[in-house]
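hey m, so remember when u said the tokens were messed up on ur end? i reran from scratch. heres the input so u can diff it against urs
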Amino acid sequence: MDLLGDTMEIRFLGVGEACDGNQPNTSILLKTDAHETAGRILLDCGFSAPHQYLSLNPSAEELETLWISHFHGDHFLGSPLLLLWFWEMNRTKPLNIIGPPGIKVKIEQAMELAYPNFMSRLGYSLLFQELTPEKNLQISDSIWKTAYSEHSQPCLSLRLELNGKSIFYSGDGRPTPMTRSLAAGCDIIIHEAYDFEDSGSGHGSISTCLDFARNCGAKRLALVHMQRNVRIQCADVIANFQRELADIEIMIPEKGSTISV
């Protein structure tokens, strides 16, 4: 594979929570090859993710794998539009769709609600794979490992290993001992941080995520899925934490931000 100087490019298609009117839903696109227009792995696909993806003018065949962390709408209900666009663009390459138990049924139900009787017309195959913490998965040169976070619905955090790099993506939810073990030694942690402190909402927080990153030995931490008002107010808080944690680079990405690992 012709890599981007032996790196991966992480593009934040969106970084917002479900009701943020300024930041699209949190969705992460991974570009692993210099010949890719946009990227071949998409992590979560909420309401607003497809339009952010399509704005990059990717080819219909480029995306190889769609990951769904859990079945809240801002993380998976953009999938029908994405699948429809692939059909419109005459895709023929199979698409891997990976997620928690029930992923096939949920995607098929969403597609039937959005575009009734359309699944049989797609013209390309959907290759569904259910993941649990007890099961790892390898797709071409990528390895997928998971652990459950603490959320209001079962949500899988992901460790993705590819070409000597490792990325941790939390989906939603507070850290657990399992997710701490999963994230240990990753090149970057991308974690939802809904509030300043834990609030009992089943979401992560800025303070918990910083402790999480420190305990995992991370050098880079990207905070996403912040509550929209917290996001506006967090700059000074993050600056204070950054002074205390000089060994960890703390990032607050915006829609369209890209970084390399």
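this time it looks ok to me. Helices lie at 49-54, 73-76, 79-88, 103-114, 177-183, 206-216, 228-233, 235-244. if urs says something different then somethings off w ur setup not the seq
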